[in-house]
Design a protein that fits this description.
Layout: E1 5-9, H1 18-21, E2 27-31, H2 37-48, E3 53-57, E4 63-64, E5 72-74, E6 79-83, E7 89-90, H3 94-99, E8 105-108, E9 113-120, E10 124-131, E11 133-135, E12 140-142, H4 154-165, E13 170-173, H5 179-186, E14 192-197, H6 200-204, H7 206-212, E15 215-219, H8 220-227, H9 232-245, E16 250-253, H10 268-280, E17 284-287, H11 289-292, H12 297-314, H13 325-339, E18 345-348, H14 353-359, E19 367-371, E20 384-388, H15 395-405, E21 414-419, E22 429-434
Helix pairs in contact: 5-7, 10-12, 13-14
């Protein structure tokens, strides 16, 4: 069983491949910064025809290029115009024109393109291309050290309503800067909240954001632009370590297999990056452009799954020490599973908290997460097999039959049962059980 989960972004390149992609991925992501209400609803209907979970990303206060026909090739030294009028490169955001001055640097497409501003008016900006590249519709605009207003934007709140109406299992909170934004989102939804770390300012509030979020995403595109590529590896490791310390699932995103947007295979460096991520213990790895607009979406997902499986046979995630009393029984369950040669750890209680605690210590066996509601939310959790349970009557018999149905174990084999009393968050009971 593959323990590190795969998330695939749905887009024009993959919308007709949903059923095939679902064989390789655990979660589909829909980026709400793109498309229309109708197109997103269509995507969600496709996803719901599979067993995959649904992650919907809020747009956040991100500046983006408008719609471009085809693509624009920018060359070093070229003068370019950004305009509201439809001339040159379309940008309609007030923040863009109000934030720039002569000499300002603007980065496009996750920093791949760099321009320096020469002229600013309320309607247009002229700039010189410093680093060229190919620009397409809806690519991000980054103005280094730009300060945005705290809190969720109006468009985010509208997107939250839409995500709720579509039954999103998880909602990605883009460009958040503090725990208060997670708290604000929590007051509007019951979905699993994924705090996306992609601003330099969010690193100052990292611990608080991790505590408030249900999961964390290392969004390396904008984060790399914000902190600088040289510092990105250290920042990435810090985010992963902090999330794991608090037992929160951590998702690695952006340019995982970027070369496969056009190439049939990943580069050696990309495979090594994935291997290092597995060693660090990420819960999930997300494909973005690779599946949304790339020429090889199925091959990208297949290659990532194959890479993870092969590495997991020989590579163990870095260990982490118990941090509190609540960790103790989960840590003991992992030890008990190893010593008894158990086939699985079955965790029930705390609305899934018991399973999260076990996953923190990366056991060698599957973690069967028994939850009453929102089982799909646990499809981002390392090693977890989420199972919805409606009644606790004859729970042991239900577990036995379910484990055999899932082909996790057979009659006579041993499992470790971890449970908590109704209404308590921490597991308080550990049992060695032989499947009947």
């Amino acid at each position: 069983m593959r323990k590190t989960k795969i998330i695939a972004t749905l887009g024009p390149a993959s919308e007709r491949l949903v059923n095939n992609l679902a064989r390789y991925v655990d979660v589909f992501r829909v980026n709400m910064a793109h498309g229309t209400v109708e197109s997103r609803r269509k995507y969600v209907e496709m996803i719901r025809s599979t067993k995959a979970a649904l992650l919907m990303d809020l747009p956040g206060p991100k500046l983006r290029i408008g719609e471009i026909k085809g693509m624009i090739k920018l060359r070093r030294g070229q003068t370019v115009t950004f305009s509201r009028k439809g001339e040159g490169i379309p940008v309609n955001e007030d923040l863009f024109y109000n934030s720039l001055k002569e000499g300002s640097v603007v980065l496009l497409a996750d920093g791949l393109i760099k321009v320096r501003v020469r002229y600013v008016s309320p309607e247009e900006v002229k700039a010189i291309v410093v680093d060229g590249g190919i620009l397409t519709s809806r690519k991000g605009i980054n103005i280094p050290d730009l300060k945005t207003s705290p809190g969720l934007t109006e468009s985010d709140l509208e997107a939250l309503k839409e995500a709720n109406s579509l039954g999103a299992d998880m909602i990605g909170l883009s460009f958040i800067m503090s725990p208060k934004e997670v708290q604000e989102a929590r007051s509007h939804t019951k979905s699993f909240l994924v705090g996306k770390i992609e601003k330099k300012g969010s690193l100052k509030e990292l611990e608080g954001i991790v505590k408030e979020s249900d999961a964390i995403m290392v969004a390396r595109g904008d984060l790399g632009v914000e902190v600088g590529l040289e510092m990105l590896p250290l920042v990435q490791e810090k985010v992963i370590r902090t999330a794991r310390t608090y037992g929160k699932p951590v998702i690695l995103a952006t340019q995982v297999f970027e070369s496969m947007v056009s190439s049939p295979t990943p580069t050696r460096a990309e495979v090594v990056d994935v291997a290092n991520s597995i060693i660090k213990g990420v819960d999930a790895i997300m494909l973005s452009d690779e599946t949304a607009v790339g020429s090889n979406p199925l091959r990208a997902a297949l290659y990532l799954g194959r890479t993870i499986r092969k590495l997991e046979k020989v590579v163990r995630p870095n260990g982490i020490k118990p941090a509190d009393v609540g960790d103790a029984i989960a840590y003991a369950a992992v030890d008990a599973a190893s010593l008894s040669s158990a086939k699985a750890i079955v965790a029930y209680g705390g609305d899934g908290m018991a399973a999260l605690k076990v996953a923190k210590f990366r056991p060698r066996v599957p973690i069967v997460a028994l939850v009453k509601d929102g089982a799909h939310r646990f499809k981002t959790v390392w090693g977890a097999v989420p199972v919805r349970v409606e009644s606790t009557t004859n729970l042991t018999s239900y577990i036995d039959s379910k484990l055999k149905e899932l082909k996790i174990c057979k009659s006579g084999e041993i499992i470790v049962l971890l449970s908590s009393e109704e209404g308590t968050l921490e597991a308080d009971s550990l049992k060695i059980h032989r499947v009947s």
